[in-house]
Write a structure and sequence with these properties.
It is built from 13 helices and eight strands. Helix 12 links the parallel strand 7 and strand 8. It has about 240 residues and is of the alpha/beta class.
């Protein structure tokens, strides 16, 4: 299967190892990975801030870049939801609405692609230690991503998954939300960090690097040491 890879801004600029890990996993499973080099931001920051005209001009570029792709795998539940769920809304009553509707079913979040498109649970990964999983809001609430990453983690040899009580609670990042409401964002992050620390797990895992950046920053501010890893980084380990 030929797969087009969509890499969000956070991963491109700050966590490139996540994109590399996704390629390693997909190629291990026999996929041919294509990276359309013209891709840019999906437009979510502008969209979430109410600047829909600006978001539309950015998103229109994504429609063109991925127009010929058969399957698109996103390294982020957040950005994947923007393209799959919110592009059709963003382009409603415009000349590109059909293009947005055509693109939407092609888009898969990484773990959803592995489990529900390829039918794979065991990718041949090995990682010694314990992990707890954080559900990113867009992946959980917009895309229905919940069991998929957990099934993949449970099949990683040597890894024990420990659920935290606040797994589905927002970490407080929310992109521009953290900038506009830093005090609220911090309070939400403190709840999340207290819950994950309670598990005693070695690693915090998520499908969204933006959430992991928020969590890692909060933990560092508290003087706590905890490894934060994207799901793909765990699955790439052998």
């Amino acid at each position: 299967m030929k797969v087009s890879l969509f890499i969000p801004c956070f991963i491109d600029q700050i966590y490139p190892q996540v994109g590399v890990s996704i390629v390693q996993v997909l190629e291990r499973l026999g996929c041919e990975v294509d990276y359309p080099e013209g891709q840019t931001c999906c437009g979510q920051p502008a969209f979430n801030s109410g600047y829909w005209d600006e978001a539309r001009s950015i998103a229109e570029h994504s429609l063109d870049v991925f127009a010929q792709s058969d399957v698109i795998v996103s390294a982020s539940g957040s950005c994947g939801a923007m393209m799959k769920i919110f592009y059709p809304e963003l382009f409603q009553n415009t000349t590109r609405h059909f293009d947005a509707l055509k693109l939407a079913p092609k888009i898969y979040e990484f773990s959803d692609f592995l489990v529900n498109k390829l039918g794979v649970r065991d990718v041949g990964a090995r990682f010694e230690g314990t992990a707890t999983f954080h559900d990113g809001c867009h992946g959980l609430r917009e895309l229905g991503i919940e069991s998929q990453p957990r099934e993949l983690l449970r099949h990683v040899k040597g890894l024990t998954l420990i659920e935290m009580k606040e797994a589905k609670t927002c970490c407080g990042f929310g992109g521009t939300f953290a900038v506009k409401f830093p005090t609220i964002s911090t309070a939400m992050g403190e709840v999340k960090c207290a819950s994950l620390l309670e598990t005693g797990a070695d690693v915090v895992v998520s499908n969204d690097s933006s959430c992991l950046m928020q969590i890692a920053g909060m933990l560092e501010h508290q003087g706590k040491s905890k490894r934060c890893m994207h799901l793909a980084e765990i699955l790439a380990q052998t």
